[in-house]
Write a structure and sequence with these properties.
Layout (H helix, E strand, L loop, with lengths): L1 H6 L2 E7 L5 E3 L1 H7 L23 H12 L5 E8 L6 E12 L5 E10 L1 H38 L7 E3 L2 E3 L13 E9 L5 E11 L1 H20 L17
Antiparallel strand pairs: 1-2, 1-5, 3-4, 4-5, 6-7, 8-9
Helix pairs in contact: 4-5
């Protein structure tokens, strides 16, 4: 039994309300970091004095449920171990033993150190919150990238008709999850009545790719309309013109 309690980090206890006698197992003393000696066991009425201030109400409610409600109950609280000063998360279970007259004559229960379980739950909760924040941020960035892409290349834009040429484009992403990339196209009627047709690609996906696409497209448009020479922005994309 001692081995089972030690492995499960459980310590049994009982309190006789008639005599005031309180008995703890060695494992119960060990959980609180207290020396095993006669008279050192903590009565239920004093248990709240050994827990952190924030958990005092929970321990008092636990005792009240036991004594007034006369029903099995449990509570979770934190203690500061007496031997090493470490904070431990404890769970206590207890049930009243009634006399033939229906009054409580004995309380039996057990303490369990659930610190590892508690820390795991805290870590999981933090991870879930982080994942939610990350997913929300990714969704917002994706929406922004889509809007930027649609602003540059409106899906309902009318085909360009000039110099007897009709131009129409269909753009469909092929990546998983319809990733927004740096693929882009443009058709522009120049002042010389020549037609500039360009298809480009910026490596990657997301905001960086879309903003790179915008820079390359606007750079090429501006230089083409002014009649300047080979644009310095061409090396970051693949572009061809038709006249």
């Amino acid at each position: 039994m001692r081995q089972i309690q030690r492995l499960g980090r459980i310590g049994a206890w009982e309190e006789n309300l008639a005599t005031g006698e309180v008995n703890w197992t060695e494992s119960a003393f060990a959980l609180f970091g207290l020396p095993t000696r006669e008279g050192a066991a903590i009565p239920l009425a004093d248990l709240h004095s050994y827990v952190t201030a924030a958990d005092v109400p929970a321990v008092k409610q636990f005792r009240e449920t036991l004594l007034r409600g006369q029903q099995p109950t449990n509570a979770t609280f934190r203690i500061v171990r007496a031997d090493d000063g470490s904070v431990r998360q404890m769970r206590v279970f207890a049930e009243p033993v009634l006399s033939p007259a229906g009054t409580i004559e004995l309380i039996q229960g057990a303490f369990q150190d659930v610190s590892a379980e508690y820390q795991t739950q805290v870590a999981l909760a933090a991870t879930r919150d982080q994942l939610v924040d990350t997913e929300q941020r990714v969704a917002e960035e994706h929406l922004l990238a889509v809007r930027l892409q649609q602003a540059i290349m409106p899906p309902t834009a009318e085909p360009v008709a000039a110099a007897g040429i009709e131009v129409a484009v269909r753009y469909r992403p092929v990546g998983p999850g319809h990733l927004v990339g740096g693929d882009w196209y443009d058709t522009l009627l120049l002042p010389t009545q020549e037609v500039l047709m360009v298809v480009g690609d910026i490596a990657g996906h997301g905001i960086d790719a879309v903003t790179g696409m915008v820079i390359a497209r606007n750079c090429l448009r501006g230089l083409a309309i002014t009649g300047a020479g080979r644009p310095s922005c061409w090396p970051i994309s693949t572009a061809r013109s038709v006249s």
